[in-house]
Fold each of these.
Amino acid sequence: MVLLLQLISNGIILGCIIALGSIGLSLLYGILKFGNFAHGDMMTLGAYFAFLFKVQLGMPMWAAFVLAMALTAFVAIIVDQIIYKSLRKSDSIILLIGSVGIALILRNFIQLIWGPQNHFYDKGIQMPIKLGLGVRVKPNQILILVVTVALVILAHLFLRKTKMGKAMRAMSDNMDLAKVTGINTEQVIKWTWVLGAVLTAAAGILLGIDTHLSPSMGWNLLLPLFAATILGGIGSPYGAMLGGLVIGVSQELSTLIIPPTYKPGVAFLIMLLMLLIKPTGLMGRSV
Amino acid sequence: MILQVKDVVSGYGDMDILHGISIEVNQGEIVSIVGPNGSGKSTTLKTIFGLVNLKQGEVLYYGDSINQNTPDQLVGLGLSFVPQSDNVFPSLTVHENLEMGAFISKTNKKYRFDLIYDLFPPLKEKRKTQAGNLSGGQRQMVAFGRALIMEPELLLLDEPTAGLSPLYIDMILEKVAEINKETGVSVLMVEQNAKKALKMSDRGYVLAAGQKKYEDTGQALLNNEEVAQLFLGG
Ligand SMILES: Nc1ncnc2c1ncn2[C@@H]1O[C@H](COP(=O)(O)OP(=O)(O)O)[C@@H](O)[C@H]1O
Ligand SMILES: [Mg+2]
């Protein structure tokens, strides 16, 4: 029982990180109609930018967090303008292949600058807090939960209340109609990259806080990210949040019956089952 | 003259659909385009709005070429387009659909929304409903509202009554006449209900196989026996 609760609690933390990453992945799919294979490495980049500001430049963590999100968004816009913009008129498979290339470039860049070894934001060891029933969480994990909830609420408000957020949903509904309506689609695409990059950078930083930084940290999460996105219904950011939590918790719970090394296989299995049973996802529209 | 389509050749990919079409709309007119399915009516409107590749010819708006303008620039110039199908954002609410129509406006002026709700009272109660959950007729009202909210000077309508019940068909066509009369907006309309459309139009064009076959006042086309036999079902 204790073990079960402990695994669920760990799963929720992992789920938070996956959810943050998959919201952006889902939005980008909805608007640009391609799966961004560089999303995991953008997550890594965000984590290393925070390392740069916090550890190498000695800034407070909150400042490093905000600056890293901003810098990741900046990189995303630059990459979009230089690479994706010229590919937009081509097939979405071309965009996908382009993103695989960008994923490799980002990962190698990170390894070149910060080396292949693991890094930490903090060297100290945290004393776990006992939550009752024998469940223990690290203070950092409570921080991860709080930051995730705050960011998800902000993303929700952005999508529901701002003109730009509504335009993103409109473009995701019908790109041609959005153009006819007078929506400046290129401007909206830039904002979509900003939102996606900011959230995925946050996911990377939170993952770094929970464990450590490594050049392949985001790439390793790409499969769960896609699984969460598909589970929630591709193009549905709210579904992606739900999908993230489901994938996170099931991955952790799976260790009850299978060795932990097979954890990513669980995400893959859920993704396959979902594609077979209900391809539109839990909250997806019938496209 | 508000719109002049001059010898336009356009199409999809390598295939030409329009083979040299010329159409004119004078200020304040209602002009209808009728013709059989697949004759290129929708393609004509899409070409005007820059959604289909224009290969030859010219589209002039108030005498200036708009060949190179993007759709969002055209909206800024006072053009507006209601496509034939999928013409609302289904996951957005009625009010959000209208807001998108006003995307190019820096300020969200309330009076614009009031005008639309006055024009289509049923929308006011449904403003928080997702457009995808509305009936066909109400959806068409949303599409009109979205297109009218920036107070355009030229309104392009592609089969505004397609798929509607007879009751709604008359209601929508009456609205078109009312909007034209009250706001002075010029209308270029494609319609399946050719007789009804020509009756309320100042002028009309008959298209077949990507070419202009007839061009006259609405009444004259209705009285033209050849046109009646070939295109208006006797
Ligand atoms: N997106 C498209 N791609 C290729 N061909 C198209 C496309 N849309 C329409 N067509 C073709 O162009 C021709 C004219 O279509 P359209 O302008 O929609 O006719 P109408 O509106 O008069 O019924 C048809 O033969 C149709 O098959
Ligand atoms: Mg048509």
Note: Residues B 41-42, 84, 158-159 surround magnesium ion (ligand 2) (CB under 6 Å).
Amino acid sequence: MYSFNYLKPVSIEDAASMLSESDEHKVISGGMTLIPTLKQRLARVERLIGLEKCGLSEIKLDGELLKIGAMATHAEVSESDIVVMENPAIAELASHIGDRQVRNRGTIGGSLANNDPSACYPAAILALGGIIHTTKRDINAEEFFVDLFETALEEDEIITAVSLPKPDAAAYEKFPNPASRYAMVGVFVAKFNSEIRVAVTGAGEEGVFRCSEIETALLKAFSSESLSDCTISADGLMSDIHAEADYRAHLIVEMAKRAVTKSARR
Amino acid sequence: MILGEIDVTQVTLMVNGTQHNEDVSDYMLLADFIREKLKLTGTHVGCDTSQCGACVIHIDGISVKSCTMLAVQADGSNITTIEGLADGDVLHPMQQAFHENHGLQCGFCTPGMIMSAIELIDGKPDISEAEIRQGLEGNLCRCTGYQNIVKSVHEAAKVERR
Ligand SMILES: Cc1cc2nc3c(=O)[nH]c(=O)nc-3n(C[C@H](O)[C@H](O)[C@H](O)COP(=O)(O)OP(=O)(O)OC[C@H]3O[C@@H](n4cnc5c(N)ncnc54)[C@H](O)[C@@H]3O)c2cc1C
Ligand code: FES
Ligand code: FES
């Protein structure tokens, strides 16, 4: 690891101003992605700005929306009574991220900022049409996820919370990579009144995306049978040592079916 | 204090019931602090890529991978390592269960397994085998094939029930 200094600001305003001082400064939340990256010397920072004292881990209802603080850990989200009541699909998704020790440290803010193409939360936030609150503005999920490991965040912008509308039905299903437990393909389906929103992670060459073929098929009837003839083109899907693009295309439909069935059971 | 251009921060933490005040470089990993500064070498570093769980310790009662945390981040906390479990010569029930059920072979993964397992069964005396297997997914063992580890954890949970 290259050397750096560690700062512990006690307010998000202080954290934001420390971050804006230099390109060589970076915030750290759970560190479950950033520390391994620093250890491998894939990144170098002058200062790490820890957000742990900034009070960003509150989970609450904000009118109709479920608002989750950026520093809420995956374990806290999965065990929160409010999340389990209001948006059980999110609680369940969080309970399957990595392993227990990853969930005890990793945060929703860090996961969204990182926008790993195989991460779970991006699929949920995009399918639910969530809003990402930052130190500068509110960003719609559609604009937030830009490309692999790339978001709409500016260099000196910090995620403070995310707000999620309550769906009529929703579920997430992932086909985990057996070694890393990241999603080889993950599909989040959400039904709101007459609208169906489906987002796919782990598969797209440009990261998380909405899948119109599945959304259209599910408009006929929100049931897994609606997907029995559905096929998806492998164009634009990733091929790597874990899976070819056409296998991923197949998995997307399969995970979508399972997610729809699971959402009906709630 | 400044050493070169890099801060050295004084951290104060309780480790296995003893208070420590130590100067650490900000970029020192907690696992290195425990092993090299405190000489508590029961906490192992297996993969160093956050995947094997050999380095699991408890911070304020919660299991974490100490290879993926900085010592400065643990300032002010209460840490338990594998060395802090036994009461003199009397093993912790989880250690005793591993001993009785042949839950280890080379022993490299064992400290992390035990620390994870203690958190896992806490308040869950009726935990199922499937829950144990899933709950230990962050701990890798290259020797046992897991069978006796799962059995050990199951037995320890039953002791908790008594
Ligand atoms: C073994 C293992 C298995 C995993 N499995 C999964 C899995 O199955 N599914 C999954 O989705 N993820 C998985 N992860 C990733 C895990 O969820 C991470 O916790 C997460 O991706 C990053 O969150 P963090 O809080 O640890 O962020 P950090 O590592 O602290 O930060 C990550 C990046 O985001 C930036 N950042 C952090 N917080 C903010 C903020 N509030 N605002 C702006 N920028 C910020 C940092 O500067 C850094 O660049 C796994 C990780 C490990 C080690
Ligand atoms: S050494 Fe920490 S997870 Fe392997
Ligand atoms: S006993 Fe050897 S690695 Fe588990």
Note: The beta strands of chain B are 2-3, 6-15, 18-25, 56-59, 62-65, 78-80.
